[in-house]
Design a protein that fits this description.
Mean pLDDT: 90
Strand content: under 5%
Low-confidence stretches: none
Number of helices: 9
Number of strands: 0
Distance between the termini: 64 Å
Helix content: over 70%
Order of helices and strands: HHHHHHHHH
Structural class: mainly alpha
Radius of gyration: 18 Å
Oligomer: single chain
Shape: elongated
Length: about 200
């Protein structure tokens, strides 16, 4: 008969997610997770098999609870013309709020942080990173197409690539220069407002 979990796995995953997001996979120890979550190492290993298993669960949680809700308005059947600008503004606000908070508040993007560390070379993680990029690109393209309804497909594709690049740059800059990250998103928004 298996043991019954005596902890809330959702809370454990959220605690681990924030640690991986802030520090990167390689710099998070099981002791860090124990301290942040209050869950003992034997329970962590029993539930997830390894720190890698916990990381995979944390990435799934990040995509489900952080990324997908931010893209909701861009993924609607009938995307509002201002949805792309609202998304960029919301992302800007999240970056500036994280920079104003305490040092333990995650900033940037968990997936992009992972991509810049050795775990990013792992085939499964590499696939998650590419799927994230594709999901982001699809949503941004939908938003730009709604914002520029008279633009040709090639113009929409052009703005999609530039906007996705600005988003990725801003999420990377968020850790080292949040003001420049905000300006990068402002520039992306401005480019959408002045182009057709």
């Amino acid at each position: 008969m298996g043991r019954t979990a005596t902890f809330d796995s959702t809370e454990l995953i959220a605690s681990a997610r924030d640690l991986f997001w802030q520090k990167g996979f390689s710099d998070v120890s099981v002791a860090d997770v124990e301290s942040a979550s209050g869950v003992g190492r034997s329970s962590i290993y029993h539930a997830f098999g390894s720190m890698r298993g916990l990381f995979d669960a944390a990435v799934d949680d990040y995509l489900t609870t952080i990324v997908t809700p931010l893209l909701t308005e861009l993924n609607r059947d009938d995307v509002h013309p201002d949805a792309i600008c609202s998304y960029l503004s919301d992302l800007r606000d999240a970056i500036t709020a994280a920079s104003a908070a305490d040092a333990a508040t995650p900033s940037g993007c968990l997936i992009l942080t992972a991509s810049a560390t050795p775990i990013g070379a792992d085939d499964a993680v590499h696939s998650v990173i590419e799927n994230y990029r594709a999901m982001l690109s699809d949503a941004i393209r939908r938003g730009i197409a709604a914002h520029m309804p008279d633009a040709s497909s090639s113009i929409v594709d052009h703005h999609t690539r530039l906007t996705v690049a600005a988003i990725i740059a801003a999420q990377c800059l968020a850790r080292i220069n949040p003001d420049e990250a905000a300006r990068t998103l402002d520039a992306a928004t401005s480019a959408l407002g002045t182009s057709a």
